[in-house]
Design a protein that fits this description.
Length: 656
């Protein structure tokens, strides 16, 4: 069955969507003109070939009469007939060639057009804010690149050319039928109308049955996916038997729905085929009567019968082609809706630049200044326009910039949240008046249950989300966070998350992902710092080992070490660490902790803590609950208070 049987999707604004597609396809207007004429030639050749059958049959009848009168035929008597047959072959061959040209060109046009659409779609996805991905499932977005793109390909390479060819065929064949016999044309239209009524009734039932089948398929697939991902739980609770029973119930429903749906689908074509034969027989009977009565010659009825088949076939196909086009336009709307989404806004004008400390030649007093460098120095500074209001630290070094409208501010990693409130959804705040100060080199631990606001604080620091005006302020080295370019801000931050997402590629490529300009020496140094070098060298291909399936060929601990190395190669002054909660062996856990400790040295660190044993040496521990800071202090101070942290630490309350 075609892809669109499961509830034909229809576009909300077909005209606008078609206009957008024309802009993409318009680049190939020259090829489209050739396609247009190729379709005309292909359909015209079919009509002309069928019409040549008339004089050919009549010529053959004439030969029979000559033979009857003379008792013999000379070779020259066959020449007119053979010429007609040869002409018919040439016409049909030319039509076949035109069809081949049409198919090849439309395949090229659709492939290049879809290439541009996919490129625009992916490029736009990369610019969208995190909020967009929070509101859409992975399946929805993947469907754009699979189902919706596939339906567009089918529409451009098949449905549209076939629909145009069908329209030309129907108009041309109808015209020729009217020329040959208006009365028989009326017979064809009446019988076809009755056939289409029957097909419509079956089609409605078939569409409903296929919708039920698709729903049942979704239930079975969802259950299988759930069970496969939860096999440990299933086995721990000895739930295999119950799972099989539940699956069998769903599978029985799918079997029943599939049988019902395919019953209608399987009887539709035989019924339509038999109705077509009945129509053909009725026309043949009426036509024979007209021949006997002398109103038609035998060649005309032979051509008309050919036209009868040529007339019904494209009309039957047109409904499928139109449905395919409507379904594809609905998919195109979804694609264009993403392309039209507003990308991540960034009004930040503060940039991150390489810097060095030196005495500028223009400095009369010989005092060392912070100076921008156009080569890698290992030191960083913010290039701040004079229009941005900053509050630098009292001990900030004077700077020298080549642009009088800018100043340089050394990147230190000083982060301040002041009275910050935030909500993902209007009128539902998840942070309430948060105040914290992470001084350069300090380690800040965020502790609290799920939903307390730990991740939200780091989301705001990375500017995945921005706070609204009047909801507090965040500064980074005295610069308002909203004034720092997002790209440059994130360049100064390193992240090691619970979800150690790795990409398909070599281990070297995955470490280098943290800094695409990293040298081989920097990659090796980062791996050694993270305690990953040892296990990497024990792999058969070492750093050239290809990671597949999000690191499925590595252990959880090894993936965690690579994530640390990836952050280390970026050499960021500020780190965000989300501790892994997955169970790993004691030796690997010790390696990870050592790698983390090395990575944190000399940096400002925010740790989302899941195990309190790892935050004891934090400069400040912030305990969150429902978006509020309920306790703060170092480990000893909080234990002395015997409050929430004390209960968590001593096991009185579970930390989730």
């Amino acid at each position: 069955m075609p892809r669109n049987v499961k509830g034909m999707a229809k576009p909300k604004n077909a005209r606008q969507t078609i206009g957008r597609l024309i802009k993409y396809i318009g680049k190939y207007r020259g090829l489209l003109v050739i396609v247009f004429f190729a379709v005309l030639v292909s359909a015209g050749a079919q009509i002309a070939g069928d019409y040549i059958l008339k004089p050919a049959i009549n010529n053959l009848v004439g030969l029979a009469e000559i033979f009857k009168a003379k008792g013999s035929l000379s070779p020259s008597d066959f020449i007119p007939f053979l010429r007609l047959i040869l002409l018919m072959v040439v016409v049909y061959a030319f039509g076949a060639f035109a069809s081949w040209v049409n198919a090849r060109l439309m395949l090229h046009i659709s492939s290049r057009t879809l290439y541009r659409i996919r490129t625009d779609l992916f490029s736009e996805l990369e610019t969208l804010p995190l909020r967009y991905f929070d509101g859409h499932t992975h399946g929805e977005l993947m469907s754009l690149f699979t189902n919706d793109i596939d339906t567009l390909r089918d529409m451009m390479s098949q449905s549209i050319p076939q629909l145009f060819s069908s329209i030309v065929s129907v108009v041309g064949v109808f015209t020729m039928m009217m020329v040959l016999s208006p009365l028989l044309t009326l017979v064809v239209i009446v019988t076809m109308f009755l056939s289409m009524m029957i097909a419509g009734m079956i089609g409605k039932k078939s569409a409903m049955a296929f919708r039920d089948q698709q729903k049942a398929i979704g239930q079975v697939n969802g259950y299988v996916e759930e069970l496969v991902s939860g096999q440990k739980v299933v086995k721990v609770f000895n739930h295999e038997g119950k799972s099989v029973e539940e699956f069998n119930a769903l599978n029985d429903g799918l079997c029943e729905a599939g049988t019902r749906a395919n019953t209608f689908a399987n009887i539709l074509m035989p019924i339509m085929g038999n109705l077509s034969h009945v129509q053909y027989a009725i026309v043949a009977i009426f036509g024979s009567v007209r021949v006997i009565s002398g109103h038609l010659d035998l060649g005309s009825i032979a051509s008309f019968l050919q036209y009868t088949r040529s007339f019904s076939r494209p009309i039957t196909m047109m409904s499928q082609q139109i449905n395919g086009i409507l379904n594809a336009l609905a998919g195109a709307e979804r694609i264009f809706a993403v392309i039209d989404e507003k990308g991540e806004e960034d009004s930040g004008s503060v940039k991150l630049v390489n810097a060095s400390e030196t005495v500028p030649s223009a400095s009369p007093d010989g005092v060392r200044h912070l100076v921008q460098s156009f080569a890698y120095t290992g030191e960083w500074a913010w290039r701040v326009p004079k229009s941005v209001e900053v509050h630098p630290a009292a001990d900030s070094m004077p700077s020298y910039a080549d642009d009088p409208d800018c100043s340089l501010l050394k990147l230190r990693g000083d982060v301040v949240f002041k009275d910050v409130s935030f909500s993902y959804v209007p009128e539902k705040e998840v942070l309430h008046g948060i105040n914290l100060h992470a001084q350069p080199g300090e380690k800040i631990a965020l502790v609290g249950s799920t939903g307390s606001g730990k991740t939200t604080i780091t989301n705001l620091l990375t500017r995945f989300y921005d706070i609204e005006d009047g909801k507090g302020s965040i500064t980074y080295d005295g610069i308002p966070l909203k004034d720092i370019s997002k790209d440059d801000l994130r360049k100064s931050l390193g992240m090691v998350l619970q979800d150690t997402h790795l990409f398909t590629g070599t281990i070297r490529d995955n470490i280098k992902y943290g800094n695409l300009e990293a040298s081989e020496a920097q990659i090796l140094a980062a791996a050694k710092l993270a305690n990953a070098d040892s296990f990497i060298r024990h792999l058969e291909k070492g750093y050239d080992t290809v990671i597949t399936g999000d690191g499925g060929n590595l252990s959880q601990g090894q993936r965690q070490l690579l994530a640390i190395a990836r952050a280390a190669v970026a050499d960021p002054p500020v780190l965000i660490l989300d501790e892994a909660t997955s169970s790993i062996d004691t030796r690997t856990e010790a390696l990870i902790e050592k790698g983390m400790d090395r990575l944190m040295e000399g940096r400002t660190v925010f740790v989302i803590a899941h195990r309190l044993s790892t935050v004891r040496n934090a400069n400040e521990i912030i305990v969150l609950e429902k978006g509020n800071i309920i306790e703060r202090g170092n480990h000893a101070e909080l234990l002395e208070k015997k409050g929430r942290y004390y209960q968590l630490y001593t096991g009185g309350i579970e930390l989730d």
